[in-house]
Amino acid sequence: MSPMARTAPVPAATDPAIIRNFCIIAHIDHGKSTLADRMLQFTGVVKPRDMKAQYLDRMDIERERGITIKSQAVRMPWELDGTSYALNMIDTPGHVDFTYEVSRSLAACEGAILLVDAAQGIEAQTLANLYLAMENNLTIIPVLNKIDLPAAQPEKYAAELANLIGGDPEDVLRVSGKTGVGVEELLDKIVRDLPAPVGDANAPARAMIFDSVYDTYRGVVTYVRVVDGMLHPRERIQMMSTKATHELLEIGVSSPEPTPSKGLGVGEVGYLITGVKDVRQSKVGDTVTNQAKPAAKSLSGYADAKPMVFSGLYPLDGTDYPVLRDALEKLMLNDAALIYEPETSAALGFGFRVGFLGLLHLEITRERLEREYNLDLISTAPNVEYEVTLEDKKVVHVTNPSEYPVGKVAEVREPMVSATILAPNEFVGAIMELCQSRRGVMGGMDYLSEDRVEIRYRLPLAEIVFDFFDILKSKTRGYGSLDWKADGEQVADLVKVDIMLQGEQVDAFSAITHREKAYAYGVMMTTKLRELIPRQQFEVPIQAAIGSRIIARESIRAIRKDVLAKCYGGDITRKRKLLEKQKEGKKRMKMVGRVEVPQEAFIAALTTDESKDKAKK
Amino acid sequence: MEDTLPSVLPLGDPAPVDGLLPPQVLDGVGSRKFGLYVHIPFCAVRCGYCDFNTYTATELGGGASQAAYASTAVSEVEFASRALNASGLPHRPLSTVFFGGGTPTLLPAEDLARILGAAVGQWGLEPGAEVTTEANPDSVTRESLQLLADAGFTRVSFGMQSAVPHVLKVLDRTHTPSRVPLVVQWARDAGLAVSLDLIYGTPGESMADWRTSLETALSYEPDHISAYALIVEDGTKLAAQIRRGEVPQIDDDDHAAKYELADQLISEAGLDWYEVSNWSRSPEQACRHNLAYWRGDDWWGIGPGAHSHVGGVRWWNVKHPAAYANRLGEGVSPAAGRETLDAGTREVERIMLEARLGSGLEVDALDKVGRHAVAGLIADALVEPAAAFQGRLVLTLKGRLLADAVVRRILPD
Ligand SMILES: Nc1nc2c(ncn2[C@@H]2O[C@H](COP(=O)(O)OP(=O)(O)O)[C@@H](O)[C@H]2O)c(=O)[nH]1
Ligand SMILES: C[S@@+](CC[C@H](N)C(=O)[O-])C[C@H]1O[C@@H](n2cnc3c(N)ncnc32)[C@H](O)[C@@H]1O
Ligand code: SF4
Ligand SMILES: [Mg+2]
């Protein structure tokens, strides 16, 4: 077993041969953050008194939800057989929405630890990322975690892993991030098994940007992996895609706190600060080179993030619109995957149509906006992007149902995904039923082990973005896991369902659904609204319609009494206070025609029951 | 009842110990009438729905006896007179006096007479002044009513509430229905005008029950009727019973239907509404003390928790009878807090209060928002079109049921 390194290799003067770049691929909650903590501790880069759980998960939301959103790169020294090595660990997100970020960090590594909970086995998400890693020719180190758990089944899952990636079950390391068992062996194995980075130290500098983070104090912090040459502080660098040049104010490594260095050489991973204030000036996937001695050819870039799910975000209080706009601008500095454009809704006022990688991305973004910028937001039901061909052959892309063209539609195409679901085999029936009801077509089914199956379906994206995952979880008692990736599109019989209050269409409630599901949506929404909207001074009909055809209707009876018919006698003050409170309440209403709709009703109508439960937790 | 006291006091500014009022109260004092409210904070039992500032003997404990109450009230009368004089207000005889509770008639008639006598001694009475007391049917006798009349009372308001035994039971009322015609007759014989208080919408009360109560009350030919929708106040026994499911929820639609029936039967019997919850046989028999509240006149409220208003300054006394007695014993104002209304707030209050009156609200006195709302109110059948054409907003039957909504529509933004 190796001791802690006595001398750490110095950045900018490190032979690539003693560098190891790796990431950890794991399903959420399988213990990646905890394992990373142990590594920080065992390599001595974090002193015991500074250790806090999940050190690398910087953002509050991450800490609370236990999710890693932003990648971080940490340099750790480790000694083996008398040589001090520099290990760069790149922490990656583990959720399906963030596959894009995973792909960026994978490209900066030579190897990956495949971390699997020894009590759970591999999950669909992990399979997808593992696939990406193998495609990138990374060397995989399979590891079973949480072997301290009484429920751990290391034999079973070691066999499962060996079965998947080849090799001997005996070679699967067994560790516990909690107790630290096996972590030092793992560090040794990283040094032994992972290839060192290779590059041309004498060539013009080329470094790949794999992340770009906006920091209030320091501006944009750009994370890079140097491929060729060397970057030095104070020299002028150039972004190869835009040709924009910046002065390199600071260059260094995270260890794990930012530590300035004399530069970064071949194979090294670290950060750059140029004083720019916008991540768009330091684009993920871009190649950084030296302005004076530029490289001829940029590194092959990363695939740009493509938003899959769209939702309208509106401030509850219309006067907060500028705050929301500034907040989105700031978030975008930090989130290359986020796109948005202004949008107006008759019902909700001024807001933005925002594109997200997936539902979790939406939820996290919304939560951050509310928390960090003190906003109260309404988000409309999530939507996918439809391609609508009109009879005159014109093609429109629709991300907001209220923009759906009226009449003259020749064809509608909707985005498809191929989904992989892993679950114990007893749930196969329930899963198939769910996928069938979501217009899925089965692609195949394999046994991963005796009692665990992998089921593949091709499904319309629209059918899985809303509540699919929640339902899958509840139908499989929490054991089912899902992964999906975009898989073309298909022509479908889709219609737009409108909801009308007293004959006024409420754009925020319009939905594009499959024709067969239009009725169910109409009934669901009209019933919900009848319960949510308080009675008015007149009767309010609520209708759901496809075009001019009404498919569901409800009605809210007129209120008959709104008066305090008890005499408060001389206490006029109390009566006035009550009235002022009612007046305040009225201000929080949105007017749809003459109908006063409380904002809570909008929120509740646009929320699924499942996500309401989540919010409560 | 035309005058009641909620048990929760507002938060306001501190009130000065000498009770002095700011000079602004002198503005327009000549056009405002002056009245007196006297709160009697005692009841034999507490009704399950009631959250007024009132105490049973057991709730009261030591420190403030019913026997000493008249003297304490008289000392506030004297304090009031001094404070008003010292504030530079001109001498004004009382145009109305109202004894409310609690149950004023739980005190011996002599005590009520003494307090009234002290007030009349300080200020005098306008000719034809109205002097009312509230009374529970089982807290008066032929003799006590005669005594009150002799002492100068002109009017009595009985808490009848219902004529149906099972409804009275849910309301925790102690009197039997047959007591009401008796006390009404005694009051008449003593020369007192009679008003009856009714409550509708009690859990378990059917439409037929309510009709019975209305018809019974009307058969006694009162000069005045108040009909209140039962309000389930937080913290009352009734609220707890409903929460626990022991008695059914109350229902706004039921209230609305019962109000409509009340308006129909009461007006068929020859009484007209002059305020959302009040009907009188003639305009002269409307409760003038009540109207003074709605019209922003001046009054001084005597007693624990009592509210006062003089020229845009409102204040309220400490709630507990013992604390109240202590203050007056020390010669300082019993006020717990007060507020000085600015012009905007006075306007809001005026609209809020006058909108409920049969005489209505002047359209020209509304701001732009209010005037713009009028057409919509006519369209929604909430105000009388003919009155509106002549420049007054007068609620229709439907409008009375939606009076708070109407007020919200005409208030300045
Ligand atoms: N018993 C046990 N629990 C662990 C171990 N590693 C992580 N956990 C727990 O598993 C949960 C998820 O861990 P975390 O590191 O946040 O997982 P991540 O989502 O992959 O980053 C936390 O409650 C950890 O305390 C382990 O080795 N043994
Ligand atoms: C202050 S009480 C005093 C009258 C007298 N103590 C009695 O109860 O007969 C005045 C009136 O207010 C009404 N009242 C009291 N509590 C009420 C409530 N919670 N809802 C509606 N009306 C109420 C009753 O009609 C009652 O007669
Ligand atoms: S008798 Fe009147 S004041 Fe006393 S508790 Fe009953 S309703 Fe309230
Ligand atoms: Mg984590």
TrEMBL record, chain A:
Record GO biological process: positive regulation of translation
Pfam families attached to this UniProt entry: EFG_C, GTP_EFTU, GTP_EFTU_D2, LepA_C
Membrane topology recorded in Swiss-Prot or TrEMBL: Peripheral membrane protein
Cellular-component GO terms for this entry: plasma membrane
Entry's localization field: Cell membrane
UniProt-listed SMART domains: EFG_C
Residue ranges annotated for the Tr-type G domain, each copy included: 17-198
Reactions catalysed according to its record: GTP + H2O = GDP + phosphate + H(+)
GO molecular function: GTP binding; GTPase activity; ribosome binding; translation elongation factor activity
Enzyme Commission number(s): 3.6.5.n1
Keywords: Cell membrane, Elongation factor, GTP-binding, Hydrolase, Membrane, Nucleotide-binding, Protein biosynthesis
UniProt-annotated binding residues for GTP: 29-34, 145-148
Alphabetical list of InterPro entries matching this protein: EF-4 (IPR006297), EFG_III/V (IPR035647), EFG_V-like (IPR000640), EFTu-like_2 (IPR004161), G_TR_CS (IPR031157), LepA_C_sf (IPR038363), LepA_CTD (IPR013842), LepA_IV (IPR035654)
PROSITE patterns (UniProt xref): G_TR_1 (PS00301), G_TR_2 (PS51722)
Family of this protein: Belongs to the GTP-binding elongation factor family. LepA subfamily. Belongs to the TRAFAC class translation factor GTPase superfamily. Classic translation factor GTPase family. LepA subfamily.
Function: Required for accurate and efficient protein synthesis under certain stress conditions. May act as a fidelity factor of the translation reaction, by catalyzing a one-codon backward translocation of tRNAs on improperly translocated ribosomes. Back-translocation proceeds from a post-translocation (POST) complex to a pre-translocation (PRE) complex, thus giving elongation factor G a second chance to translocate the tRNAs correctly. Binds to ribosomes in a GTP-dependent manner.
Protein name: Elongation factor 4
UniProt organism field: Arthrobacter terricola
Taxonomic classification: Bacteria, Bacillati, Actinomycetota, Actinomycetes, Micrococcales
Gene name in the database record: lepA
